[in-house]
């Protein structure tokens, strides 16, 4: 796998975060290629609505993207003419939000006569641990858990992916957000519910570990959400009860994910596990999987917390790796709101 010496500008705009970063990819110096990154979150913009409003998200990306590009270049002490390529999130995600990033990236690439590439959002998450000083080498199993995705992937090489299990309804992060809303917690609910769970007793309420009583690696969290709602409605709804219910719910999610991870490692015969995506920042999940790895003999790798949620660094990295392999794309502006991870082309390692 060759290096890409000039910095690649990465743009993330798939949902409600505008992320920009600069990465110089050199496989012989992992963890050292990140030159600068900036991130703007639209959480306050969408709070009054209790969720992301796609049209508002798109407009805010338009407003923030280019100022963030200039700020990122300034932080790195670079100018536009120092760039070697441009990468952007092409999907999956909100179509309007994706088009903002894609249009800006393609315009910059055309104006500067640079190669450009559309990056799969989940491949960005999957490769985020490569930003760390001691990155995992394929093959490994990846657990990708976020607001829109819960999947297990066998990674035999960069671009060589097999989806082992996926969510049949609510993703883990979505279940966190919806359950928090049902319990009257403010937006964004997932992090607030996780904070409540730290104050509760995980044994006070026991909820099902969905789909762990049958073979397979798919996920389903909608029934768990209903269980929590019924328990909450029958309770005294005190602050301590809220914390206990939140803790029991979180424990059910974490144990379900951990059980499926073990199954995936056993099924593939792999001994490395990476966790990526927004839910990968959850303290209980990180602690329990790390403990399980030490006990059962598999290694566990996480990106740093700031790169668990959506960010430009993961897109710049994924784009730089593919550009280094000669995988630039034509000038057309194309996004894919739905895009299967296992349709990607592999990256040659020679």
From TrEMBL:
Pfam families: TsaD (PF00814). It is found in: Cytoplasm. GO terms for cellular component: cytoplasm. Fe cation binds at residues 121, 125, 310. The keyword Metal-binding applies. GO terms for molecular function: iron ion binding; tRNA N(6)-L-threonylcarbamoyladenine synthase activity. The keyword tRNA processing applies. One of its GO terms (biological process) is tRNA threonylcarbamoyladenosine modification. It catalyses: L-threonylcarbamoyladenylate + adenosine(37) in tRNA = N(6)-L-threonylcarbamoyladenosine(37) in tRNA + AMP + H(+). Keywords: Acyltransferase, Cytoplasm, Iron, Metal-binding, Transferase, tRNA processing. Residues 34-316 form the Gcp-like domain. It is an enzyme of class 2 (transferase). Its cofactor is Fe(2+). PROSITE patterns: GLYCOPROTEASE. Substrate binds at residues 144-148, 177, 190, 282. Required for the formation of a threonylcarbamoyl group on adenosine at position 37 (t(6)A37) in tRNAs that read codons beginning with adenine. Is involved in the transfer of the threonylcarbamoyl moiety of threonylcarbamoyl-AMP (TC-AMP) to the N6 group of A37, together with TsaE and TsaB. TsaD likely plays a direct catalytic role in this reaction. This is tRNA N6-adenosine threonylcarbamoyltransferase. The gene is tsaD.
């Amino acid at each position: 796998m060759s290096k890409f010496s000039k910095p690649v500008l990465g743009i993330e705009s798939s949902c409600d975060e505008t992320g920009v970063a600069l990465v110089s990819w050199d496989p012989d110096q992992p963890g050292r290629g990140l030159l600068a990154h900036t991130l703007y979150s639209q959480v306050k913009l969408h709070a009054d609505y209790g969720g992301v409003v796609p049209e508002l998200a798109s407009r805010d990306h338009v407003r923030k993207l280019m100022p963030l590009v200039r700020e990122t270049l300034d932080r790195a002490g670079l100018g536009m003419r120092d760039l070697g390529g441009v990468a952007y999130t092409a999907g999956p995600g909100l179509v309007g939000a994706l088009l903002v990033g894609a249009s800006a990236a393609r315009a910059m690439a055309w104006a500067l006569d640079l190669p450009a590439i559309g990056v799969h959002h989940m491949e960005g998450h999957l490769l985020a641990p490569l930003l760390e000083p001691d990155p995992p080498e394929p093959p490994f199993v990846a657990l990708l858990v976020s607001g829109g995705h819960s999947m297990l992937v066998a990674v035999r090489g960069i671009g060589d992916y097999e989806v082992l299990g996926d969510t049949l309804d609510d993703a883990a992060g979505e279940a966190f957000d919806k359950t928090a809303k049902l319990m009257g917690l403010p937006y964004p609910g997932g992090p607030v519910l996780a904070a409540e769970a730290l104050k509760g007793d995980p044994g006070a309420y026991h909820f099902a570990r969905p789909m762990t009583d049958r073979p397979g690696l798919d996920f389903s969290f909608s029934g768990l959400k209903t269980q929590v709602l019924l328990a909450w409605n029958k309770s005294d709804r005190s602050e301590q009860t809220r914390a206990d219910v939140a803790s029991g719910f979180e424990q059910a999610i974490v144990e379900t994910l951990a059980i499926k991870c073990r199954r995936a490692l056993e099924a593939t015969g792999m001994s490395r596990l990476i966790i990526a995506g927004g839910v990968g920042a959850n303290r209980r999940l990180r602690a329990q999987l790390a403990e399980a790895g030490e006990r059962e003999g598999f290694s566990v790798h996480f990106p740093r917390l700031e790169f668990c949620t959506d960010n430009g660094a993961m897109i710049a990295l994924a784009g730089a790796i593919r550009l280094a392999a000669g995988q630039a794309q034509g000038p057309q502006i194309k996004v894919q709101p739905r895009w299967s991870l296992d349709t990607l082309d592999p990256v040659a390692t020679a």
